[in-house]
Design a protein that fits this description.
Alpha-D-Glucose-1,6-Bisphosphate, Chain A, domain 3, five-stranded mixed beta sheet, 22 strands, about 35% helix
Length: about 500
């Protein structure tokens, strides 16, 4: 029998995460991720994990980490006490990155892991991410956790903890950083083996999140000059810019840092370091399609003819680069990093050689790294490649020289006013499919796996658009790219004629 979740619990589900408002401070946003709720969800995770592993709670070991958010220490304290109170052995990892928490299930053999983060969201938000040795929990698993939480709370089963599992302070970030250092040493194989980045100047922008370790514990010990770095100190109010490689101010910051310091390369992370971006020596962004191109070039070096899975809004130029320059295959899929990762895993299970799943948002997961979306791992691979290219007198710019990039791009987000937004959105997609067939100069994409993607010839805008339904929200984003000046407006005006026929889109 299916369980109907009360709003108190259902509002906390965000795809494969738990997220909510954890502290006051933003007008109109009431706290709904309370410490009591965090405690109950943690107990639900213990029950779920014990059932999954067919063992008792006192046989479990669970690691706990957090990003720099101001609510992090309080939530971590509650989560740790709740785990211990169920008899679980707890590894308290303190300030950590999300990918490192998964890696505790590999290196420290933890039964599970809890990461307290809300990614790039504002200071008042926070959340919980859960891992097992198989990876992050699926959306259906999060629903189950919330169902168990509601049961515990509603049946009066949320009793005080009586057990006391061991709590061990654990500096896993030290071990995690050492792993990344060793990757660079082995990958570059410099004459000065222990200092492969000597003479290399690299700026890091951590956005006051959890990524400051990368400059201090990974790059500097290898001889890199990181003096051009910015905002390495954790500060959960994020006073300088949003820690988000997709944010314009954040990218402007790392571009400025590289140019002002004369660095050879810059890297930037989101709050919990599961996403990354980069900047070349000229201050040019290696982000979105260009980031995918660089990652694809690296991933396909030892995987000739391999398939690269991306989200749906990647450009036509990227597809041509992957297939004609790199001689790989490009497989567009649905937005949502978990969707992209799961599709890559599915393809590999079917015998299709797929070394990389990557979103234009900066989520990148490599098969060689457990298909874990890890911004630090991606940036490490980029730094290794940059160092190897330097030996040849080349730069990262040479790697993507054949990438054709659109002249213009635009995104418009339409709100769905219909209560059953998903059904309405799907009807819009169906109508647009039929509508596109009647339009001169429009060609439906043959590889669209989300929404409707249409290419337009030179007379009608010389580009493409994609209209899709948001993964979680009553929103239909419209993405447009054009190869001509004014082309995005030309395409938008044509699409607007169709949108006018949809009375529930505003």
């Amino acid at each position: 029998m299916s369980v109907v979740l009360e709003e108190k619990w259902s509002c906390l589900k965000s795809g494969t995460d738990i997220r909510g408002c954890a502290v006051e401070g933003v007008e109109g946003e009431e706290v709904n991720l309370t410490l009591d709720i965090c405690e109950t969800i943690t107990k639900a995770f213990v029950r779920w994990l014990a059932d999954k592993t067919n063992t008792s709670p006192d046989a479990l070991t669970v690691s706990v980490g957090r990003d720099s958010r101001i609510s992090g220490p309080a939530i971590a304290g509650v989560v740790i006490r709740a785990l211990s109170g169920c008899g679980v052995k707890v590894l308290d990892c303190g300030l950590a990155s999300t990918p490192s928490m998964f890696m505790t299930t590999v290196d420290l053999k933890c039964s599970g892991a809890v990461m307290i983060t809300a990614s790039h969201h504002p200071f008042n938000r926070n959340g919980l991410k859960f891992f097992t040795p198989e990876g992050g929990l699926e959306s259906s698993d999060i629903t189950k956790l919330l169902e168990i939480s509601q049961e515990i709370s509603g049946n009066g089963n949320d009793q005080p903890n009586t057990l006391k599992g061991e709590i061990v302070l654990t500096d896993y970030m030290k071990q995690y950083s050492e792993r990344l250092r060793n990757m660079i040493k082995e990958g570059v194989n410099a004459e000065d083996y222990d200092h492969p980045l000597k003479g290399f100047k690299i700026a890091v922008d951590a956005g006051n999140g959890a990524g400051g370790f990368y400059a201090k514990k990974v790059l500097a010990p290898l001889g890199a000059d990181t003096s051009g770095s910015r905002y390495l100190a954790p500060d959960g109010m994020f006073p300088n810019h949003v820690p988000n490689p997709e944010n314009a101010d954040a990218m402007k910051s790392i571009c400025e840092a590289v140019k002002e310091s004369g660095s050879d390369l810059g890297v930037i992370f989101d709050t919990d370091v599961d996403r990354g971006g980069a900047v070349d020596a000229f201050g040019n962004e290696i982000n979105r399609n260009r980031l995918v191109a660089v990652a694809a070039a690296i991933a396909l070096e030892n995987c000739e003819g391999g398939t690269i899975v991306t989200d749906s809004i990647t450009s036509d130029g990227l597809k041509e680069f992957i297939e004609k320059t790199l001689h790989g295959r490009h497989h567009r899929f649905k937005r949502g990093y978990k969707n992209v990762i799961n599709e890559a895993i599915r393809l590999n299970n079917e015998g299709i050689d797929c070394p990389l799943a990557i979103e234009t948002s900066g989520h990148a997961a490599m098969r060689e790294n457990y298909f874990l979306d890890d911004g630090a791992y991606l940036c490490t691979k980029i730094i290794i490649k940059a160092a190897l290219l330097r030996k040849e007198g080349k730069t990262l710019e040479d790697l993507t020289r054949n990438l054709k990039e659109a002249l213009e791009e635009r995104e418009v987000r339409y709100k769905i006013t219909e209560h059953d937004f998903r059904t309405y959105g799907e009807s819009v997609i169906a109508k647009l499919n039929e509508y596109a067939l009647t339009k001169e100069g429009w060609t439906l994409a043959d590889d669209s796996r989300e929404g409707v993607r249409v290419s337009l010839d030179k007379e009608h805008g010389d580009g493409w658009f994609l209209l899709r339904l948001s993964v979680h929200d009553p929103i239909m984003p419209l993405n447009i790219e054009s190869n001509e000046k004014g082309g995005c407006k030309k395409i938008f005006d044509q699409v607007s004629e169709f949108i006018a026929l949809c009375d529930k889109l505003v």
